[in-house]
Amino acid sequence: MDNQYYFNNNDDRGYSNAVQAENEMTLQRYVAAVMRRVFGKMTLGLLVTALVSWLMLSTPTAMNLIFSHPALMWVLFIAELVLVFTLSARIEKMSNALSTAMFYLYSALTGVTLTPIFFIYTESSIASTFAITSVTFGAMALFGYFTRQDLSKFGTILMMGLIGLIVCMLVNVLLLHNSMFDLVISIVGVFIFVGLTAWDTQYIKQMCATADPTMTGKIATWGALKLYLDFINLFLYLLRFFGASRD
Predict the structure, then answer these.
(1) Where are the domains of the chain?
(2) Separation in Å, CA 10 to CA 7, 18, 21, 207, 240
(3) Among 157, 164, 172, 238, which residue carries the largest CB count within 10 Å?
């Protein structure tokens, strides 16, 4: 009787393990599908940014408007900040369509505000820096996705570093005007956004695994925005090192 109970108990345990393994595989496939949507939206956002920049460069009237009215650029920067903060704070209360539209609107505005870099750096250096950024971003995103190490402890440090970086940038732009300090800021900025890429990827993946499935579309948009910001900022900081000036 004892042996019979032992074998039956093992069979039940084996069945439970099989069900658990199948559930885990289903969850992994679901998370992978949502992450594909995240990276797909982020990539499309980058394409929107590139297309808008190209259209701006191809339209002299638009470029004259931007350069003739510097205040307009500040209005666009403020509009970008409003969109980012609104999406981050209220995306749960928005519809999927509205949050997606706001993300692509932000991508389009970024295309406008990034256009002046084509008058500062050569096209070839911008293209090569974009390629370097893509490889670096891709490597860190893969690390964040597949690593079993908990990166949350680094995330707090990176966010504190980001706040410090913004403060230092404002102080240098408004008061110091120190080129060496600007170089240090750029180096720190690269490391911060390299780290944030890995951390954000892992955090988004964890959200996909634990959030309500009805939130999938919003998570994809929010995740796309986070990674888009990481990519753009990493690109801009790397451009300070690899960008060849037109002068």
Answers:
(1) 2-242
(2) 5, 12, 16, 35, 63
(3) 238
